[in-house]
């Protein structure tokens, strides 16, 4: 497994990196058979250290956790415990998807844009509004099943996930509703 351990405006020493690799490797080894990459970022927010970890699994899932504490090692331990709990909760589902998927998930490329909010014209003119593009970047869209997309949404801290449905190849969206349920948008079924 590849590790990417870094700090945002703080120095991360070799001892902390070794500790993170050993502890996180042990957690991931218990629950996931083929992890591909772990990204751990440490930062400081006021008087607290913050540790954010994302583990990419070959099944296409990403598990994310975040921990806060007054000391940097304690922040990592908090994050590690949350990751452990998350992976333990979804262990059966992760293993089942792993057995059904012999090859890693394929990702397709797509353009992603960040747009500035538009303001209504003051003079009441209903002229054509053209949003200003602030940033343009490439994003990856996984080809997964609806069940895997829902599990990915539950594992991550995302509010929505855009994916290519393996069943029919169309683009779908799953999202977290305000009532706590998960919604699924499948444009192919609307006629």
Automatic annotation (TrEMBL):
Top-level lineage group: Bacteria
Major subcellular location class: cytoplasm
Keywords for this protein: Cytoplasm, Translation regulation
Location of this chain's protein in the cell: Cytoplasm
InterPro entries: HPF/YfiA_ribosome-assoc (IPR050574), HPF_long/plastid (IPR034694), RHF-like (IPR036567), RHF/RaiA (IPR003489), Ribosom_S30AE_C (IPR032528), Ribosom_S30AE_C_sf (IPR038416)
GO cellular component, one term: cytosolic small ribosomal subunit
Domain Sigma 54 modulation/S30EA ribosomal protein C-terminal per the UniProt entry, residue ranges: 130-183
GO function terms (MF aspect): ribosomal small subunit binding
Keyword Transmembrane attributed: no
The keyword Cytoplasm is annotated on this UniProt entry: yes
Signal sequence residues: none
GO biological process, one term: negative regulation of translational elongation
UniProt cross-references to NCBIfam families, sorted A to Z: yfiA
Subunit details: Associates exclusively with 100S ribosomes, which are dimers of 70S ribosomes.
Free-text function comment from the UniProt entry: Required for dimerization of active 70S ribosomes into 100S ribosomes in stationary phase; 100S ribosomes are translationally inactive and sometimes present during exponential growth.
The family this protein is said to belong to: Belongs to the HPF/YfiA ribosome-associated protein family. Long HPF subfamily.
Protein name: Ribosome hibernation promoting factor
Lineage of source species: Bacteria, Pseudomonadati, Pseudomonadota, Alphaproteobacteria, Rhodobacterales
């Amino acid at each position: 497994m590849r590790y990417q351990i870094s700090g945002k405006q703080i120095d991360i020493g070799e001892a902390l990196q070794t500790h993170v690799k050993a502890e996180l490797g042990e957690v991931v080894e218990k629950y996931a058979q083929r992890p591909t990459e772990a990204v751990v970022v440490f930062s400081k927010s006021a008087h607290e250290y913050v540790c954010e970890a994302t583990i990419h699994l070959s099944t296409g899932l990403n598990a994310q956790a975040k921990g806060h504490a007054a000391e940097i090692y304690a922040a990592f331990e908090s994050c590690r415990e949350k990751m452990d709990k998350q992976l333990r909760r979804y262990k059966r589902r992760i293993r089942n998807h792993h057995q059904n998927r012999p090859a890693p998930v394929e990702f397709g490329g797509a353009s992603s844009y960040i747009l500035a909010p538009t303001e209504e014209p003051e003079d009441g003119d209903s002229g054509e509004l053209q949003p200003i593009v602030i940033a343009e970047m490439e994003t990856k869209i996984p080809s997964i099943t609806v069940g895997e997309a829902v599990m990915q949404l539950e594992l991550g801290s995302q509010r929505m996930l855009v994916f290519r449905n393996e069943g029919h190849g169309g683009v779908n969206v799953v999202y977290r509703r305000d009532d706590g349920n998960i919604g699924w948008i499948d444009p192919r079924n609307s006629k």
